[in-house]
């Protein structure tokens, strides 16, 4: 992976931990340039993208589609429900097929953590792999759009006080963000139920009660409670989670004037955040969705350059 003429060039984009700080800053700068009409992309030939989603998605799937169309790529329609996956075809063979058809980029969301490793190690698969989420592993395009949103607001990461709140152990968003935010100089706090915290996260920040840090925070990064990844019943009712760990109006009122609230969405309204706060003045939840299109344009451009 490298940066060419100020633009990032990647073979694949599968994990934030595989990117250098320069590549991260290059991608979010390029995303911002696309957003503000300071960048254009002229395809050198006809390019094809396939979006292979084996888990549900609205934002990631559709914003990759919009990003690809804005860059002038042709989209290869793929529906996991009607594909040969239903005849037992493996993910590897599905991607090998896409590569053989001449697809340049495969964006993949799949429930298996690290599914991408065998794909990027294969000599036969020639298309770029972009990870749209692997189980509870990584979600690098979400992380990059989160970083772009924070950078748009503050212009730096060093010294920012950021709380990542909630269902940490099940969240690929949390895992993608904690390592890179620490690497970029932010001070991290983790809040939420102890049962959704792992001591593995201690190297990145401290687990604290949200009420102990709320007045100091620059960024409140809420996480969705991932009911579909919980083995059994959670020990919290919606109301109990909201009052102990969620962003209520009372906590919102304690935030600094220039603090911002983020959530990758979909939002469980009145659980992680009070319903009426989703579009409150300090919320950047809608801005995150918009930024997703532009940072994904930067990602697709980077892998097309990397494979040129
Ligand atoms: N934030 C996010 O990944 O949303 P989707 O599951 O809708 O793609």
From TrEMBL:
Per UniProt, where does L-aspartate bind? 87, 172, 224
Determine the domain of life of the protein's source.
Answer: Bacteria
Q: Which reaction does it catalyse?
A: carbamoyl phosphate + L-aspartate = N-carbamoyl-L-aspartate + phosphate + H(+)
Record EC number: 2.1.3.2
What's a single GO CC term here?
Answer: cytosol
Entry binding sites for carbamoyl phosphate: 59-60, 109, 139, 142, 265-266
Any single Pfam family the record assigns to this protein? OTCace
Check the record and name the PROSITE patterns matching this protein.
CARBAMOYLTRANSFERASE (PS00097)
Ranges for domain Aspartate/ornithine carbamoyltransferase carbamoyl-P binding come to 12-152
Please report the stretch or stretches of sequence annotated as the Aspartate/ornithine carbamoyltransferase Asp/Orn-binding domain. 158-302
Entry's Gene Ontology molecular function annotations:
amino acid binding; aspartate carbamoyltransferase activity
Name the enzyme group at the top EC level. Answer: transferase
The GO annotation for biological process reads:
'de novo' pyrimidine nucleobase biosynthetic process; 'de novo' UMP biosynthetic process; amino acid metabolic process
Identify the keywords attached in UniProt to this record, alphabetized. Answer: Pyrimidine biosynthesis, Transferase
Pathway noted in the entry? Pyrimidine metabolism; UMP biosynthesis via de novo pathway; (S)-dihydroorotate from bicarbonate: step 2/3
Write out the coiled-coil annotation as residue ranges. none
User: Which protein family is it in?
Assistant: Belongs to the aspartate/ornithine carbamoyltransferase superfamily. ATCase family.
Subunit (UniProt): Heterododecamer (2C3:3R2) of six catalytic PyrB chains organized as two trimers (C3), and six regulatory PyrI chains organized as three dimers (R2).
Q: What does this protein do?
A: Catalyzes the condensation of carbamoyl phosphate and aspartate to form carbamoyl aspartate and inorganic phosphate, the committed step in the de novo pyrimidine nucleotide biosynthesis pathway.
Q: Which NCBIfam families match?
A: asp_carb_tr, PRK00856.1
HAMAP family in the cross-refs: Asp_carb_tr (MF_00001)
State what protein this is by name.
Aspartate carbamoyltransferase
Q: What species is this protein from?
A: Streptococcus merionis
Ranked from the top, the taxonomy reads: Bacteria, Bacillati, Bacillota, Bacilli, Lactobacillales
Question: Source gene?
Answer: pyrB
């Amino acid at each position: 992976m490298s940066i060419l003429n100020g633009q990032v060039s990647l073979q694949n984009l599968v994990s934030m931990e595989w990117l250098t700080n320069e590549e991260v800053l290059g991608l979010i700068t390029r995303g911002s340039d696309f957003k503000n009409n300071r960048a254009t992309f002229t395809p050198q030939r006809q390019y094809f993208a396939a979006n292979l989603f084996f888990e549900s998605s609205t934002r990631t799937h559709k914003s990759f589609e919009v990003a690809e169309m804005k860059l002038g790529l042709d989209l290869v329609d793929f529906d996991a429900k009607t594909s040969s996956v239903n005849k037992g075809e493996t993910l590897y063979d599905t991607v090998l097929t896409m590569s053989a058809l001449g697809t340049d980029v495969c964006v993949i969301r799949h429930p298996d953590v690290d599914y991408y490793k065998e794909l990027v190690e294969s000599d036969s698969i020639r298309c770029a792999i972009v990870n749209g989420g692997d189980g509870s592993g990584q979600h690098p395009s979400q992380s990059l759009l989160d970083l772009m949103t924070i950078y748009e607001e503050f212009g730096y990461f060093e010294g920012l006080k950021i709380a990542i709140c909630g269902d940490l152990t099940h969240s690929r968003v949390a895992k993608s963000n904690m390592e890179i935010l620490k690497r970029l100089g932010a001070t991290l706090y983790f809040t939420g139920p102890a049962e959704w915290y792992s001591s593995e996260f201690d190297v990145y920040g401290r687990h604290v009660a949200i009420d102990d840090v709320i007045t100091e925070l620059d960024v409140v990064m809420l996480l969705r409670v991932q009911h579909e990844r919980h083995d059994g019943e959670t020990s919290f009712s919606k109301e109990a989670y909201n009052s102990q760990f969620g962003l209520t109006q009372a906590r919102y009122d304690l935030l600094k004037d220039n603090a911002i609230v983020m959530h990758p969405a979909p939002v469980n309204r009145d659980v992680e955040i009070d319903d009426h706060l989703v579009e409150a003045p300090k919320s950047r939840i809608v801005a995150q969705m918009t930024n997703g299109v532009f940072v994904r344009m930067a990602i697709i451009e980077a892998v097309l350059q990397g494979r040129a």
